[in-house]
Design goal:
heterodimer; A: mainly alpha; 0% strand; B: alpha/beta; five-stranded parallel beta sheet; 13 helices
Chain lengths: 120, 419
Amino acid sequence: NKQHSCIGCVLVVSIIEQLAQVHNSTEKEALERLCSYLPAKLHLQGACILIAEIFGPHIIELIEHKMNPDVVCHSIGLCKRKAGQPFCHLYPPTKMGFNVAIKESERMVANQLKENVHRL
Amino acid sequence: SGVCSLPFLKQLCEKIQLLIRCKLPFEDLDGDKFSLYPTLRGYHWRGRDCDDVQASVYPGRRPHNWDADKDSNCNGIWGVDPKDGIAYEQKFCKGTESKGIILLGDSAGAHFHIPPEWVTASQMSVKAFSNLPEAFANELDWPQFSGVTGFLNATIGGWTESLYLYLRKRNRCNHRDYQNISKNGGSSNNVLELVKSLARSQQFDKPAFVIFSMIGNDVCNGYPDTVEHMTRPEQMRTNVMQALQYLNGLLPKGSHVLLTGLADGRFLWDNLHDRFHPLGQLNKDVTYEHFYSFLSCLQSAPCVGWMSANATLRNLTSERALQLSSALKELAKSEKYANFDVFYMDYPLKEVAEMWQKSGGEAWQLIEPVDGFHPNQVASALGARIIWKKILREWPHVLGKENPSKDEIIAVFKDQGGH
């Protein structure tokens, strides 16, 4: 469901960010590294590569612009704020605040990505 | 649903959906509810079948013709002693009060666990993820290492210590006679559905020792108005009585049922809230307080009441849990059944923590690090030790006598065909 998509997204983006940090690599390399760790059984690795193809470039771009996982996942539509509700976030808010950060991130990612997410 | 509408997948999908719902083994050719396959509710969950073609052969069955010709109950004891012509099952197991152990439980009983190395960048590797398919096929549960029915050496930290292993050590005739009938989200509200997957025949099987252990979901939910959705004591009583009535029609005479109370989940916040979650350990930026708040905000927390910064709410949740435990305690005192006796004991979380602290450990080390909610491998193992000792002290008849032929069984049958 939507909540689980949000949790999964925040988790995966956190891992990509931290893998890059631990291995002193780019985010793209970190994403490839993460997929390489997964077993081929049950098509887990294949699914990871497919998802990386769809979301990877946008996630990487946003992480490179120092957006945290909460902002990334709201920007690509996997986390959604309900009307009248606060932003659900795992990490402490950034200096610019969630609203500004998400608006800026949304500008960065093309509409096409949202369509991809919706289709998926 | 899209994939499952394809004609060639429809039947398979329906079977998988049915089995997932019914908590029955996916691979079970003879339909006796026991399997040769480990995951998908196979022998990680209930004793391994030793013949998946004959429905009359499965763990827990009373031996047919003392198993002179074949091992009809899969306990690894069969054949005839050439020295005196007496069947081994008769010689070693007759009159030993052998029995099976069955858990009706929740995610704690099924042993829910997400390995921290799956979410910790510095510990990730191909090896760390090698158990991912198996974990998915077991619904992220690890019953094979659990405190009631665990039988394999733990590969997720800690060690395996279980009531089944204790019972098997006491009497090797109990080999493979275990069933873990648990599910994530299990509570008194759905136990009646769950208990229907229990495999026991009054006519053909040995008695069983059933443990009803739903330690939190009756007070745990993800709703913002969480108290409104908690089970009420009278509802708890009705639910459990219905389950016991059902068991009375299922269990062989001489069985036993142990009801355990709910845990006091204030333990979670008290020991974790200011510690770093595995996702926050690298940059020291995510504590369990943040993690709990994130899940609650998404209405995906397994337990809003106890995973809350609001002390009043945490206390209210514990108060309701105590009321529900009291309802179980009363029920154990007042209700009588023809085929089993009923006992009650508190969930021994406090004793587990004390035992762990005495050996130099800290309380937070007893909680699953990724979900910040479930008892972990160490807590499960110590819990089993404490429960076993209590039963031995207070209700020893439940466990049956110690089998005097234990060493002889080991000498003749070695590992009894393994698990």
